């Protein structure tokens, strides 16, 4: 039990929301005459056949033409207030949208910074014949400078801001990674059918979806293929099929991507099959444990954490009696013990932590729902005959809600670990279907998903060195700088693996850290970094959707060295694999001879995510011993855990400060872009989890919960230690707000609920007024579903507001209206330097027991 447990904030009171103060640089756009010249080629053919529906329908024979029942791409500089409503009113089927960056040109540029990239949006909509006719008619009015019909005024704005209008064609459906996937599949198995996914446009009408699937099936069968699996999830606007095509048809698609399936207008994307895969480990470098835990007595307690992974070794000495395996597909019978590596390792880390320095095991059973199985090549992988989205959806629904007539297998679970990623779905600006699914499930069930950022095992080119000798002999700090430069130069190729971009989830990167690391490496291995503040070289980089801070935190993932694998003009390095005992985490593991006490080593972001799940579990138990938290409902408890797991991060440390001085760009206003780049690597930092497990004499952590409707706000009164008034002393204030946003997949904003914390006093953050420099910017912290910032100060202050810090939590709708209240959790830590000798914790705790007088000095 903590000596100084967390404190519960009093329930908040309603208060007026803050006024909006949204600003942006003015965009210079072309004149109407110039826009007409630019867009005329897109409309020239349409204009001549506007009144002939039969001729309009003939446009569908040409995939390069705008045509009925073909998606139209509107590339807009900036964004439109309500394109969805306007499109629907005109008769378009609204299909979606996503952010883009638009290079400045002579036609579009920012008035204040002409050289800066422009933010834009791509809107996707599909017209029928009548809608296409009216659309062309509106363009003609715009071209002739005529007034738009009543209710159509927004289309004048669209035609003014549009950079391009074009049909969605084969070049959009067949992505470069799909071509690469097809080529690799044919190289590995030239005579076997190739399995991939067709993601369809999600139509509102079920009848139209059925018609689209029939057309897809007809085209697939005409090509000699078959549909292996199909699923529809209206909640996330997902309609997809798993397809097998003969190799000759795949070769035809590669050579001529404008034929066959690539021309089916109902298809949005042809993608590689989404598979989470863990490579087999044929090397053995571990040991049989000399000390083993006794059989625990935990099965009588309700589990609160689950693991979606491979099948673990249930009778391993470290795991025996500590697991509840939910195995609806009866994988236990077909999963050889020697192949149960990843699930065993993750379960071991969640239960015990790093066995190099094991902690107290968690006091509840861990639910394991296997979503991987043995693959023919020796790996562990998610099922090859089912869409991955469906696999995860059914697993979570079975845990929380049940399956058919079967009840929920673990309804009290509030933490779900997914230490898996899809390397064929790197994040590229658009939320993946699996990311959308986890966002939806988190808000529906009140679950905190803890997800690994992904392991990027690619080689790294380091241009600063031309020879192996120069690289190996370089001073460690200079070599580190060169490797960091190389990582940032290739950040677009080292992005998160789906579903790590999910907004409601907590994404964990791997810190370059391991308690068992001794520094003794063989002569050909090089430690790339001089500190444990940085992520290791395999940890994927953010940012996330709409530049959300991702990963949010780093936890130890092994101090992975590198090896030079090429030189001559520039040095090429690769992360080392197969020697993890020198730099990794010790975990329970399978042994070919079946030894139930065998332990091996693991590294990477999966390790870090498992350790985060363990930390969440320990926090849960700690909260149950703290007054005021035992009766929290499950959804609030999940949010408290989300807030506290980030709350211990105190900024970027010395390496963040260095990067802030080292990285480009420089100059006025450039710090936002520069610090966004640092956040790609460091997130909010590496949390000190002990800070949130227990308070100290000079530090108090308070936690509050609540719910907010759109345009609502509440006020929290945070009591401050009375002995601090008028005293000059170093102090810091850390504030973390966490929520699960409902989502709107068809809206440009996606995130329905945007919450934030503001000071509600005229004196603002008077007790610690300076924002700590080395952390994500004040803009970045408002983008996702975690608001986290640290403030510092040391000036003597006269107390305001009866010695309370007034914090206002507010909510606004950012992706269309919604009705349900949004639950949230708020964590606040106040710390004073030890030299001040102020008993912060005791004074704050004492003040919480005193009723707060009505009224707010300083105003709200």
Can you give a write-up of this model?
Helix 7 (176-188) runs antiparallel to helix 9 (247-255), helix 10 packs parallel to helix 15 and helix 15 crosses helix 16 (634-647). The two termini are 38 Å apart. Residues 851-860 have low confidence and may be disordered. The strands form eleven sheets. This protein has a seven-stranded parallel sheet, with helices on both faces. The chain has 860 residues and is α+β, with helices and mostly antiparallel strands. The chain folds into five domains: 7-20 and 695-848, Jelly Rolls (Sandwich), CATH 2.60.120; 31-168, no CATH class; 172-273, Alpha-Beta Plaits (2-Layer Sandwich); 287-625, Peptidase S8/S53 domain (Rossmann fold, 3-Layer(aba) Sandwich), CATH 3.40.50; 651-683, no CATH class. The protein contains 20 helices and 40 strands. The protein is 26% helix and 24% strand. The longest helix is centred in the last third of the chain and has 20 residues, at 605-624.
Comma- or semicolon-separated keywords:
about 850 residues; Jelly Rolls; Alpha-Beta Plaits; seven-stranded parallel beta sheet; six-stranded mixed beta sheet; 20 helices; about 25% strand; globular; disordered C terminus
Q: Which CATH class of the largest domain is shown?
A: Alpha Beta
What is the total number of structural domains?
5
CATH fold category name of the largest domain: Rossmann fold
In the sheet with the most strands, the strands line up as 16-17-15-20-22-25-26
Helix/strand structural class: alpha+beta
Give the total of beta strands: 40
Shape: globular
């Amino acid at each position: 039990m903590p000596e100084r447990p967390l404190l519960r904030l009093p329930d908040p009171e309603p208060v007026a929301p803050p006024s909006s103060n949204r600003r942006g640089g003015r965009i210079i756009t072309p004149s109407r005459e110039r826009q007409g010249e630019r867009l005329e080629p897109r409309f020239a053919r349409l204009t001549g056949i506007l009144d002939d529906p039969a001729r309009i329908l003939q446009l569908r024979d040409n995939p390069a033409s705008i045509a009925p029942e073909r998606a139209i791409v509107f590339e807009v500089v900036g964004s439109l207030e309500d394109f969805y409503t306007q499109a629907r009113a005109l008769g378009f089927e609204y299909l979606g949208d996503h952010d883009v960056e638009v290079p400045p040109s002579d036609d579009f540029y920012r008035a204040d910074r002409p050289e800066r990239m422009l933010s834009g949006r791509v809107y996707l909509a599909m017209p029928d014949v009548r809608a296409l006719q009216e659309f062309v008619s509106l363009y003609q009015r715009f071209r002739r400078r005529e007034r738009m019909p009543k209710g159509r005024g927004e289309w004048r704005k669209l035609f003014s801001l549009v950079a391009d209008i074009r049909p969605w064609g084969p070049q959009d459906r067949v992505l470069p990674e799909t071509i690469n996937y097809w080529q690799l599949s044919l190289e590995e198995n030239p005579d076997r059918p190739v399995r991939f996914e067709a993601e369809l446009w999600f139509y509102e009408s079920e009848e139209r979806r059925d018609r689209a699937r029939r057309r897809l099936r007809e085209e697939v069968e005409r090509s000699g293929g078959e549909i292996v699996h199909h699923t529809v999830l209206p909640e996330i606007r997902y309609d997809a099929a798993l397809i097998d095509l003969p190799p000759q048809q795949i070769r035809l698609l590669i050579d001529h991507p404008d034929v066959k399936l690539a021309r089916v207008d109902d298809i949005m994307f042809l993608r590689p099959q989404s598979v989470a895969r863990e490579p087999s480990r044929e090397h053995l470098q571990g040991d049989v444990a000399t000390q083993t835990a006794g059989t625990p007595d935990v099965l009588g307690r309700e589990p609160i954490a689950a693991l979606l992974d491979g099948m673990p070794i249930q009778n391993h000495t470290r795991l025996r009696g500590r697991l509840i395996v939910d195995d609806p597909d009866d994988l236990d019978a077909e999963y050889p013990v020697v192949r149960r590596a990843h699930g065993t390792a993750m379960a071991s880390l969640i239960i015990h932590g790093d066995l190099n320095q094991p902690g107290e095991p968690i006091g509840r059973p861990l639910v394991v729902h296997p979503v991987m199985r043995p693959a023919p090549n020796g790996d562990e992988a998610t099922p090859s005959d089912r869409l991955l989205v469906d696999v995860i959806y059914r697993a979570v629904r079975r845990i929380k809600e049940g399956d058919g007539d079967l009840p929920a297998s673990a309804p009290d679970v509030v933490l779900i670990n997914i230490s898996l990623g899809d390397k064929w779905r790197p994040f590229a600006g658009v939320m993946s279907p699996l990311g959308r699914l986890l966002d939806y499930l988190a808000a529906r069930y009140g679950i905190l998903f803890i997800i690994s950022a992904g392991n990027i095992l690619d080689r790294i080119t380091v241009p600063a060195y031309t020879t192996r000798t120069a690289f190996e002999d370089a001073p460690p700090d200079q070599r580190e700088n060169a490797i960091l430069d190389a990582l940032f130069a290739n950040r677009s190729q080292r992005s998160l693996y789906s579903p790590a971009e999910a907004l409601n989830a907590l994404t964990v990167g791997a810190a370059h850290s391991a308690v068992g690391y001794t520094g003794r490496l063989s002569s050909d291995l090089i430690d790339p970094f001089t500190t444990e503040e940085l992520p290791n070289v395999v940890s994927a980089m953010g940012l996330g959707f709409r530049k959300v801070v991702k990963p949010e935190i780093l936890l130890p993932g092994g101090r992975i060295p590198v090896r030079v694998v090429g030189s001559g003009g520039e040095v090429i390095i690769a992360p080392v694999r197969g020697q993890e005992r020198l730099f990794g985490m010790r975990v329970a593991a399978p042994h070919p001879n079946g030894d139930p006490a065998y332990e091996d080593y693991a590294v990477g972001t999966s390790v870090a995510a498992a350790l985060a799940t363990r930390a969440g579990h320990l926090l849960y138990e700690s909260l149950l011993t703290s007054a005021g938290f035992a009766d929290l409902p499950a959804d609030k408890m999940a949010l408290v855990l989300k807030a506290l797991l980030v709350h211990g991060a105190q900024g970027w440390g010395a390496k963040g400060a260095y990067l802030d001085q080292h990285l480009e760009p420089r100059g006025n206003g450039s710090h936002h872009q520069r610090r966004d780049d640092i956040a790609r690597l460091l997130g909010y930092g590496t949390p000190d989890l002990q800070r949130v497990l227990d308070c100290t004499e000079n530090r108090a952590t308070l936690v509050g919960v609540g719910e907010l409707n759109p345009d609502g706000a509440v006020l929290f009164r945070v009591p401050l230690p009375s002995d601090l008034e008028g005293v000059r002393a170093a102090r810091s204030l850390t504030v973390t707000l966490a929520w699960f946003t409902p989502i709107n997949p068809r809206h440009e904003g996606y995130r329905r609920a945007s919450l934030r914390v503001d000071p509600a006093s005229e004196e603002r953050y008077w007790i610690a007024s300076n924002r700590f420099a080395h952390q994500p910017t004040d803009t970045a912290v408002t983008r996702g579903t975690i608001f986290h910032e640290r403030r510092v100060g040391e000036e003597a202050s006269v107390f305001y507001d009866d010695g309370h810090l007034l914090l206002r939590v507010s909510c606004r709708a950012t992706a269309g209206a919604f009705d349900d209240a949004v639950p949230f959790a708020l964590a606040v830590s106040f710390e004073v330097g030890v030299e001040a000798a102020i008993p912060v914790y005791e004074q704050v705790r004492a003040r919480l027991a005193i009723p707060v007088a009505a009224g707010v000095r300083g105003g709200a």
